[in-house]
Write a structure and sequence with these properties.
CATH architecture: 3-Layer(bba) Sandwich
CATH superfamily: FAD/NAD(P)-binding domain
Number of strands: 7
CATH class: Alpha Beta
Mean pLDDT: 87
Helix content: 25-40%
CATH topology: FAD/NAD(P)-binding domain
Order of helices and strands: EHEHEEEEEH
Low-confidence stretches: none
Strand content: 25-35%
Radius of gyration: 16 Å
Shape: globular
Number of domains: 1
Number of helices: 3
Length: 130
């Protein structure tokens, strides 16, 4: 299972909520040990939340994810979502490729690019009110 947020997403909290809810559901069905979960996000670190972190969200969320055996990839650009895998490139601070990942997945959920981001770009590009 791969869960996360693509580049351009603006609200990351629901992706974390979804991942943790999935863990609870899988535990309740007694199959958590058979379902690896990887959290892939464009955030520069776990717990950034698009806000630069809130309090100690980095430490808290990393701890929660480790305790629930959720692996993660941060600063990621989603390259391709396939029927059985997700391909992502982890990037350096300057945007250059750092490492590529191909993560097996039978179930994938990503928060999409925010519509607000598109609207803001449209306003910036042509100056009209959106």
């Amino acid at each position: 299972m791969v869960i996360g947020a693509v580049q351009g997403a603006s609200c990351f909290g629901p992706a974390y909520e979804y991942a943790l809810t999935a863990v609870s559901d899988l535990r309740n069905r007694k199959i958590r040990d058979r379902v690896p979960i990887t959290f892939v996000t464009s955030e520069p670190y776990i717990g950034h939340l698009g806000l630069g972190g809130v309090g100690d969200t980095k430490g808290m969320l990393e701890s929660v994810m480790r305790d629930r055996d959720i692996k993660w990839v941060t600063n990621a650009k989603i390259d391709r979502i396939n029927a059985d895998s997700v391909e992502a490139t982890e990037v350096n601070e300057d945007g250059s490729p750092k490492k590529t990942h191909k993560i097996a997945s039978k179930f994938t959920m990503f928060l999409p690019l925010s519509a607000a981001s598109t609207a803001l770009r449209a306003r910036t590009a042509n100056g009209s009110r959106v």
